[in-house]
């Protein structure tokens, strides 16, 4: 089992969740919302073989915490994973959109300077801007658009730009989400939950709930559950086992 976008530290009892992740053998990319949270997460998961922590600065926090971009850039030197970063264009965050674009662009440039990172990206109501920044700055990094909900033409543009996609049960509950997933290249999709923010309708999704997408994706691909599982596994291995890019910094 794989969850490529989960806020492990934001569950009410992170230690219990981590224990259960280990017991069930789930591979988790634990995204964080601030550089400080990244430091805390590193300590939390130090004994967990299958959890990797990404350093992030969530776009919804950029208005207040944009000064932490320096700390983000510093910590990026110590990890292959960056997230959650990106841009949120929904009404309550439009005021900081310019600032969000600058912070996101700075993180992308820093990732290039460090030889490329795997980056989990938020693009709600801002897919065009996110793709502008990716087009301008990304060469060596691998952008993963998490819970992509933009228009189809932006999805096509993202595919042309080499983006990957992480999709979760909440996204697949909507018709539009399923239609987007149907257009994504099958060799660039990974499962996620976005827990505990995303829920199954009643309670927050747990990292192992990422497998709820399997039957739905099997239906979209007109394939089997087993095929979906093995595709996810090979995508995950291809993304992570890829040789480390050479840094020219
Ligand atoms: Mn998230």
Q: What small molecules are bound in this structure?
A: manganese (II) ion
Q: In angstroms, what is the radius of gyration?
A: 17 Å
Global shape: globular
| Class based on secondary structure composition and strand pairing | alpha/beta
Spell the H/E element sequence.
Answer: EHEHEHHEHEHEHEHHEHH
Roughly how many Å apart are the termini? 35 Å
Low-confidence stretches: none
Description:
The chain has 249 residues and is of the alpha/beta class. It is 44% helix and 14% strand. It has helices spanning 14-24, 35-44, 62-65, 69-76, 97-113, 127-137, 152-160, 169-172, 175-183, 213-221, 225-241; strands at 2-6, 27-30, 51-53, 81-86, 118-122, 142-146, 164-167, 189-191. Strands 4-5-6-7-8 form a five-stranded parallel β-sheet. A three-stranded parallel β-sheet has the order 1-2-3. The relative contact order is 0.13. The mean pLDDT is 95. It binds manganese (II) ion. Manganese (II) ion is lined by residues 5, 7, 31, 84, 194, 197.
Summarize the structure.
This protein has 249 residues and is an alpha/beta fold. It contains eleven helices and eight strands. The strands form two sheets. It has a five-stranded parallel β-sheet. A three-stranded parallel β-sheet has the order 1-2-3.
List key phrases describing it:
single chain, 249 residues, alpha/beta, five-stranded parallel sheet, three-stranded parallel sheet, 8 strands, 44% helix, globular, binds manganese (II) ion
């Amino acid at each position: 089992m794989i969850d490529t976008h989960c806020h492990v530290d934001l569950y009410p009892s992170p230690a219990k969740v981590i224990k259960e992740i280990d017991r069930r053998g789930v591979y988790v990319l634990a995204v964080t919302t601030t550089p400080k949270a990244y430091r805390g997460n590193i300590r939390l998961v130090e004994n967990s073989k299958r959890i990797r922590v990404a350093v992030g600065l969530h776009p919804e926090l950029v208005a207040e915490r944009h000064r932490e971009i320096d700390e983000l850039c510093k910590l990026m030197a110590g990890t292959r994973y960056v997230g959650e970063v990106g841009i949120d264009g929904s009404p309550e965050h439009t005021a900081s959109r310019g600032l969000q674009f600058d912070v996101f662009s700075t993180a992308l440039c820093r990732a290039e300077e460090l030889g490329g990172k795997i980056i989990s990206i938020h693009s709600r109501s801002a897919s065009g801007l996110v793709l502008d920044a990716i087009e301008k700055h990304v060469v060596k990094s691998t952008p993963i658009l998490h819970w992509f909900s933009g228009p189809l033409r932006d999805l096509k543009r993202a595919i042309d730009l080499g983006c990957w996609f992480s999709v979760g049960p909440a996204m697949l509950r909507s018709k539009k989400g399923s239609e987007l997933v149907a257009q994504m290249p099958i060799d660039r999709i990974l499962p996620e939950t976005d827990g505990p923010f995303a829920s199954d309708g009643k309670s927050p999704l747990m990292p192992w709930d990422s497998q709820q997408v399997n039957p739905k994706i099997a239906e979209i691909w007109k394939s089997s559950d087993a095929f979906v599982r093995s595709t996810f596994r090979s995508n995950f291995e291809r993304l992570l086992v890829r040789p480390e890019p050479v840094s020219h910094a």
